[in-house]
Amino acid sequence: MHGGGRSKWKSRKTSRSSLLIFSLLTLLFLLLFFFVFYEEISTFIHPVSKTSSPLSTQSSQCLKTLGERFLFYAPHSGFSNQLSELKNAILMATILNRTLIVPPVLDHHAVALGSCPKFRVLSPNDLRLKVWDHAVELIKEGRYISMAEIIDLSSISKLVRTMDLRDFVSLWCNVALDSVCLDSSNVKSSRLDNLRQCGSLLSGLTGNVYKCVYAVDEDCRTTVWTYKSKDVDSALDAFQPDEQLRLKKKISYVRRRRDVYKNLGPGSAAHLSTVLAFGSLFTSPYRGSQLYIDIPESPRDNRIQSLLDKIEFMPFVPEITNAAKEFVQKVIKSPYLCAQLRLLDGQFKNHWKTTFSVLKLKLLGLKQKGTLPVHIFVMTDLPRSNWSGSYLEELASDESSFKLHVLNNDDEFVRRTAEKIAPASCGKGGIPDNCLRPCPHRRPDVLLYLEEAVCSCASLGFVGTAGSTIAESIELMRKNSACLEQKQIT
């Protein structure tokens, strides 16, 4: 009898053990299922609303754009530098097969990088955030002009996909840009908070987010990007901080040459991310090397070589080039010299004598062999009201020998060009009906671009300020015959 009781007790104990094991296995299965499908479940239960925080819905945002991968970068400094970075961004986006997010034209020096040769630059995270904040301000104030509205991108449209930053903001941040306008009293703080948090995510301040955002931390202090070069990946670059700089500034950086495709392309953590965010993409020659990007040619990749040939020179949009030609034909109406005189900014304010001496020498030659008066188109940052006592005043007063031409923001050609580039509403001025004009637009400042285009047409030659990137841009335009032939303006 006791034996039968023990048998029943053992049976109940076995049943309890089996039930416990089954329960544990079920619980483990449910936990595993929840972990694997958490993003889909949470999105289904809590759908993303237009006022939700980008940081709290970042997974949903990345799922939303899973079919497309983007490249974001942080331009800076003046327009010439920004154009140089746009070219490099086009190159990087093509190599990595990503859609390029085209930024706005930033205010002159609204964002500064620092000095790569001195290893003193803004961190990529801080640079990205400054660019983002400035872009939001441009949208709010109705001053946003895309680089694609100034530079003609049609030549590269078949090689790389592009998206305007404003479209990306609407998609990525769940913010309707028609609600972020000039009158700040109408802007709800929640929308601005969304934009700030979105910028924080994109800048990398919150760290990389797996399969969502990969923020590139490597900058000119540590890296020179290459592509299919003969260098061994991660080999030391020729330019390194010298011993004096290392000791004085306590610099420990080591610059290495790294293949951008191997490190950020297929097979890398960066490749899995929806957005690849660079900091600065500015580069220039320095001490036998390049400061950040060294891809001068690509003989092993015909597609990239073709792109390099196309982006060497990228013209202004037709609205700008046509206005410049019209100014030459209707106002100047004679062969002329262009003088680009940078006199007020940075290092240039201390070199007036050198700048003017080159111009004097050129004009002396033109006077001796040409018909008077010599026509001169003057492009300068020195206001005409401040010409008193300068060589410019001397030229302006000698009307028998010289005739000076200038452009300013009140000129008809400038106003009309600005209106064509940024019409008051969509569907006008050649802008597609589905264009994005989130806020009432102020007339953009297009004077610099028109002046450069007019200088590219000067048949008597060009005198530029030594060391000016604007002068370099004009020389490139002239080299590529961006304007009229001489016979058309004589």
From TrEMBL:
It comes from Carnegiea gigantea. The chain crosses the membrane at residues 20-38. InterPro entries: GDP-Fuc_O-FucTrfase (IPR019378). This is O-fucosyltransferase family protein. One of its GO terms (biological process) is fucose metabolic process. Belongs to the glycosyltransferase GT106 family. Keywords: Carbohydrate metabolism, Fucose metabolism, Glycosyltransferase, Membrane, Transferase, Transmembrane, Transmembrane helix. GO terms for molecular function: glycosyltransferase activity.
